[in-house]
C-alpha cells in the first residue's frame, strides 16, 4: 500500500513537472513580441535548470497585472473610446503638417493612437531640479480646480516636503488633489507620516501596483508605475525624468553625486491627452473613471506657438503595444545630420542598437551621453557590452562625471525632441508604465541642444583605442551580466 502511494505521488509530480514545462514552452512560443534570443534563453533555462527556470518564469516571465486590473486595462485604452472620438472633433487643436524630420514619427502616432499632433502649447524646458520644484510649488499654490500627480519615487525630506505642504494647503482650500505613487518606488513615502497627514487633509492617494507577499502569487511584481507626470487645472502639465525627491539628499550615501534630471512644463491643449493617460492609470488602480474635460478656447491663446506639435506616447499593459519602441526606432532612422541621446541605463534592444549604429555609419553625427557613476551594478556592466560595437560604428560615447545623469532625451537634427521617462533598456521598452513627449519644435530643440552640450562639456569621451585594450576579465563579466538582460 505504501509503495503504491509513493509511486502515485511520483507519477503526479512527474506529470505536473512536464505539464509545467509544456505550458511554459507554449507560452514562450506564442508570445509575439519576444525575440528569438529571449525565447531561446527562456527555453534553455527551463530545460537545463528546470526547478530554478520554472520559478523564475513564474515571477518574471509573463507580463501581467492582477485579474481585475488586467480586465480594466484591456478595455480602457482603445481607438474607439468615446472620449477620444470627441477629442478628434476638436479639429482646431491639431497640427496637420510637421517638419520633414518629424513627419514619419507623427504619422506613426496618428496611425497607432488615432490623432494628429497637438498645437498651440507653451513649452519650457527645466534642467535644474530646485528651480523646477519652486515653479511647481507656485503652480500648485495658484491652482483653481484640480491637481493630479503620478510618480515612481516620492522620497520625503528637503524640498519634497515643501511640495507636500503646498499640496496640503491647496487641498484644504478646496482644490481636488489626487496622488498616485508606485508602491515599490515610493515605499519610504508610504512608511512615513506624510501619507496619513496628506490623506487627512483631503488628498486622494493611491498606492499603485501594490507590493505584498499575497500579490506575489497573483501578478508579476516587476511591472512598475514609472511615469512622472503632473496635471494642474487640466491646462498645465509637467513630465520628464524627475522623481519627487530632494537631489541634495536622495541616495547620497552611494557616493555617485546628485541626480541630474530634465522636465518639461507645458501650458495648452496637450493637457487633455496627458489627462486621459492619467485617467486610464487611475481607473486601472481604483476602477473609477475620471475623464478630463475637452480643450476649450482658453487652450488656444494666440501668443502660444502654433508652428510646433506635440504627441504624447504612453506604454504599459492596456496601452498600444510596442509603441515607444517603434517611436524610438522611427526617430533614429529619421536623423539626417545629428542625433544626441541621453540615458542613465543603456541596454538597448537589438533593433535599437542596429538603428543607432546604422545612423552613425550613414553619416549622422551620433552622440550618446550616459553616467560615469551608476546606481545599478547590473545595468552598468550589461551596458558595457554595447560600447565596442557603437564605437566601431562611429558613435561617440560620453560619460557624465558630475553626478548621476538621469535625463532621458533624444534630439534629432535639432528639431525633433523626445523627452520622458523611458530608459534605453528592456524594462522601459517592454514592461513599465512609461510616458514620452514627442515635440516637433525648432526653438525647443535648440533649448534641448544647449542642455545636452552642457552635459557633454561635463563628460569624458570614451576612447575607442583605450576601450579595445581593457582587461579580458572585464569582457567576461560584461557578458555574464548581459546574458541576464533578455530575461526581461
Automatic annotation (TrEMBL):
PANTHER family: CARDIOLIPIN SYNTHASE, PHOSPHOLIPASE D. The gene is cls. Its EC number is 2.7.8.-. SMART domains: PLDc. This is Cardiolipin synthase A. Keywords: Cell inner membrane, Cell membrane, Lipid biosynthesis, Lipid metabolism, Membrane, Phospholipid biosynthesis, Phospholipid metabolism, Repeat, Transferase, Transmembrane, Transmembrane helix. GO terms for molecular function: cardiolipin synthase activity. The chain crosses the membrane at residues 12-29, 41-60. It is an enzyme of class 2 (transferase). It comes from the Bacteria. GO terms for cellular component: plasma membrane. Residues 221-248, 401-428 form the PLD phosphodiesterase domain. It comes from Buchnera aphidicola subsp. Diuraphis noxia. Belongs to the phospholipase D family. Cardiolipin synthase subfamily. ClsA sub-subfamily. It is found in: Cell membrane. Pfam families: PLDc_2, PLDc_N. Its main location: membrane.
